Amino acid sequence: MRFSITEYGMIKLIVGLGNIGNSYQDTRHNAGFWFIDLIAQKYGIRLNYDKKFLGDVGRGVICGHDVRLLKPHTLMNRSGLAVAPMAKFYGIKPSEILIAHDELDIPAGSIRLKMGGGHGGHNGLKDIVPHLGADFHRLRVGIGHPGHASRVSAWVLSKPSCDDAISIERALNCALDNLDLIMAGELDKARNIINGFKLG
C-alpha cells in the first residue's frame, strides 16, 4: 500500500516514547527518547519541560518544515496524557504525527517505518491509541526479544549490551539521515531505505 503526503499530511509533531529519570535513560524502553535527542542535537532544537504538555518539548525547522518535538514525562504507560493535549492544542492531526518507540519483535539494529496498525502490546502505544486513534506514523526501533514473555518487562527496562547499543544507534542514525525524505513527504522512498537498513 502506498501512502502519499497528500493523503496523510505533513509531519508536524515527532514524539519519542520512554521513561523519564536517570534510572531509565539508558534502558531499551527509551529508544524513542534517544531518537528525539538525536534530532534535537542535529537540528539545534532546545528541549524544555512544559507542564501544559507534561513533557520536554521543542520547536524547530527540520528540512525546511516547522516541527515540534515531544518527550513525555508521564512514564510509558500514560504517554497519551502528553501526546493528546499537545496535538489538540496545536491542531495537529494523528496523520501528522510520527511516534518513535522501541519494538520487541524487531532485532536490535533493524528499524521500521509504518503508518497505522495496532499497539502490538506496547504500553505507550496502548495508551495513545484511545486518545488519537491508530492513524499515526510509527518509527519502530528494534531492541530484540529476550525469548520468553516472562522476561519482557526486565528486558525492556534494562540496558542493552554494548553490541546491541551500537546496533540500535546505527539504526537510529539511518532514520535520522532519512528524516528529510519523511519531511518532504517521500514516505515510500523513506520506508524502503529505513526498513531495508542492515548493519554493515
How is this structure best described in words?
The chain has one domain (11-119, 134-183): 3-Layer(aba) Sandwich (Rossmann fold), CATH 3.40.50. It has eight helices and seven strands. The protein has helices at 5-8, 31-43, 80-89, 123-132, 152-156, 162-177, 179-183, 187-195; strands at 13-16, 48-50, 55-62, 65-72, 97-103, 111-115, 137-142. The chain has a seven-stranded mixed beta sheet, with helices on both faces. It is globular, with a radius of gyration of 15 Å. The relative contact order is 0.19.
Which descriptors would you attach to this protein?
disordered N terminus; 200 residues; seven-stranded mixed β-sheet; alpha/beta; Rossmann fold
What's the β-strand tally?
Answer: 7
CATH topology-level fold name: Rossmann fold
Category from helices, strands and their pairing: alpha/beta
Beta-strand portion reads 15-25%
Total separate domains: 1
Summed up, the helix count is: 8
The CATH class name reads: Alpha Beta
Q: Assign the CATH architecture.
A: 3-Layer(aba) Sandwich
What separation lies between the terminal Cα atoms? 29 Å
Spatial order of strands in the largest sheet: 2-3-4-1-5-7-6
Contiguous low-pLDDT stretches (5 residues minimum) are 1-8
Summarize, please.
This protein has helices at 5-8, 31-43, 80-89, 123-132, 152-156, 162-177, 179-183, 187-195; strands at 13-16, 48-50, 55-62, 65-72, 97-103, 111-115, 137-142. It has 200 residues and is α/β, with parallel strands linked by helices.
Ordered list of secondary-structure elements with their pairings:
Elements: H1 5-8, E1 13-16, H2 31-43, E2 48-50, E3 55-62, E4 65-72, H3 80-89, E5 97-103, E6 111-115, H4 123-132, E7 137-142, H5 152-156, H6 162-177, H7 179-183, H8 187-195
Parallel strand pairs: 1-4, 1-5, 5-7
Antiparallel strand pairs: 2-3, 3-4, 6-7
